[in-house]
Amino acid sequence: MSRNLTYAPLNSRALIAVGGPDWRTFLQGLITQDVETLKPGEARFGALLTPQGRLLYDLFVVGREDGCWLDVEAEHRDAILQRLTMYRLRAKVELGKDETPVAILYPGGEGPAPGAGWTPDPRLPALGWRGYGAEEPAGAAVADEDAREAQKLALGVPGPADWGSDRLYPIEANFDLLNGIDFKKGCFVGQETTSRMKRRGTVKTRMLPIRFEGPAPEPGAEILAGTLRAGEVLSGREGGAMALVRLDRIDGELAVNGRPIRVEKPDWLLEALGENAA
């Protein structure tokens, strides 16, 4: 049962185990995602923000029978644990590292999960399933994380290499369009700024994929619309990259270091914004 699927272990991700009687209310007031209705085996995408509403760390919260896992960037796990501990105060919450391996299986689509430990990626169906201690399905091709990054770029889905830490707002990284923010859940750290940006429609910049000939420009390279700055290049590879662009300056001729580029709006983004896919 391969379904032409590709399996890849995600060594860049690590887990934090969260438990105790107050774990739901504790996380509910911290992260952008609702956890009150989270079911065992379900994964939801979210983030931890600064009080000013800037994006600190992305995360997936994965429901368990006695709590949850936080699926985070491995290099940031210690810093996230430290921040969660700072917020814990008198809450009856248990926090600790968990070494259960994380993997992905893609592309996705219709049909049941491929076995125990697999749960749909909550961002887009095409991103497949995330696995927590899950077995590699028989017949699946095996790839590394670089192949997964290429798939994400083809879909126009940004990742941690694009947003960094404490630089941007989560809406600029499309968290609102990738099921990463629950605007109905009530207060969380950074909620006021996030809700105001969404409510007032003041989102002037977003992450979108760009296409070009040849190798990717250096991260931070300036995108120009004539003589006007239209954005900057983020992570990339041969022929494509993610970019943070000004939405009011991307419809004309664009260039990076004298090279022509074009900005793409993925179908999922157009659908989420209520625009017609061209």
Automatic annotation (TrEMBL):
Gene Ontology terms describing biological process: iron-sulfur cluster assembly
Highest taxon listed in the record's lineage: Bacteria
Keywords in alphabetical order: Transit peptide
SUPFAM superfamilies for this protein: Folate-binding domain
All copies of domain CAF17 C-terminal, residue ranges: 204-269
Record-linked InterPro entries: CAF17_C (IPR057460), TrmE/GcvT-like (IPR027266), YgfZ/GCV_T_CS (IPR017703), YgfZ/GcvT (IPR045179)
Entries under Gene3D superfamilies matching the protein: Probable tRNA modification gtpase trme, domain 1
Entry protein name: Folate-binding protein
Organism of derivation: Phenylobacterium soli
Lineage of producing organism: Bacteria, Pseudomonadati, Pseudomonadota, Alphaproteobacteria, Caulobacterales
